[in-house]
Amino acid sequence: MSTPQARRLAMDILRRTMDHHQDLQAAVDDVLAGVAPGPDKGLATELAYGYLRLRGRIDFILAQLLKNPHQTSPVLKRILGVAAYELLYLSRIPEYATLDWAVSLVRERLGEPLSKVANGVLRNLVRLGRSVHLPDYYEGKTAGQAKFLSAWCSCPLWLAELWLKAYGKDKARAYLEASLQAPPLGVRVNRMHPQGERLRQDLAPLAETRTDWGFALKQWPDFLDEAVAAGAATRQSLAAQKIMDILGAEHWPSPVLDACCGRGGKTFLMTELGKTVWASDVNVFRLRQLKGESRRLGMSVPAFRAGAQGPYPLRPGPRTVFLDAPCSGLGVLSRRPDIKWKRTPADCAGLAFLQDEMLRAAAELLPSGGCLAYVTCTLNPEENEGRIEGFVRTHPGLGLLRQAQSDPAEGLGEFFYGAVLKKG
Q1: Which of 200, 212, 279, 369 is the 20 to 30 Å CA partner of 27?
Q2: Is the pLDDT at 67 greater than 70, yes or no?
Q3: What is the DSSP letter of 24?
Q4: How far apart (Å, rounded) are the C-alpha atoms in residues 18 and 55?
Q5: Euclidean distance between CA atoms 379 and 181, whole angstroms
Q6: What's the CATH superfamily of 5-133?
Q7: Which pLDDT tens digit goes with each residue over 227-268?
Q8: b/e for 49-78, b at 16 or more Cβ within 10 A?
Q9: Where are the domains of the chain?
Q10: Going by CATH, does the domain composed of 238-423 fall within 3.40.50.2300?
Q11: Distance (Å, rounded) from C-alpha 355 to C-alpha 391?
Q12: Can you tell me whether residue 254 is helix, strand or coil?
């Protein structure tokens, strides 16, 4: 049989993401851009995201079933991996249908002998039954907590070791298990918009959890598309909104320089809080996106191109500098599961050096009494507490006002760190 379209699309997404290092969502957007609306788009997206979230666990299972897993063709392992995700986690697809397309695709790409291997491996996987859904299966086949978490929680061994050292056994496991689940859909209601209050009331009964103007939703209601288009709401993770609340963004002195503004999610959050915000970014494409957001929301935010290490063409300067710092992204693995298979410990160390440069440049801009706010979307003490504590030690004119980190008990599946410093 020919391979069903959704599976071919998923394989193309994974090829672009893992072999050519394209960001997962960008690969999804590119591959599905010309595909007609229908179930194939949803299934292809689910297969790509789901497989990458659980790839480590699936690879561990397949290693028990393959004779020479380390010498197995990467093409065969990927086809088996996607098929295994279907068999284990997509109960609405009949087993025979998954076996049929996977074995046929292996035959097409790798020949008849390996198609027989694929058939045998997948049938043996089915025979394992419920056991592979329980942590005992992995605990009994691994030595030590790090290797167990690497297998059960589907992450590289170095990441399990990092979080065990940083957060202890229970919290590391909680963070890792939360990262395996698709996060809720986040939305921020624009409190400045005439429809804002009515929209907030309409969303309240639909929310899994919420803040005053932010909501986490299990499903996206149709009326929100119109609200977003009208500038009454913005798609934004509730976890990202909460870290800004906890850091007291509404009390930061204006004007605020958002020195890593990206497409402007937090820029316009601060604007909606009544702040005067200036936006800068080194990336021209992101600045164009920010200008598009400015038009959609009907808010005028001055924006210019500059690296967050400075220098800045500002006279006079801001009273608050906000750094939504480039980071390893280990706090948003639920939304960007490809990151854990691409990042290395060396990447984290390089980012920490860049973060130091940004903090230094931000501090030089501030007047006495000014604030420096620092946020990352990672779980890595070297990029979080370590950066801030080290920076304060070497810059005695700055004092730590507050710092915070998302808690897995919040149920949002995404984790942010933030700190606010004040210049004496």
Answers
A1: 279
A2: yes
A3: H
A4: 12
A5: 17
A6: NusB-like (1.10.940.10)
A7: 999 999 999 999 999 999 999 999 999 999 999 999 999 999
A8: bbbbbbbbbbbbbbeebbeeeeebeeebbb
A9: 5-133, 144-178, 238-423
A10: no
A11: 10
A12: coil
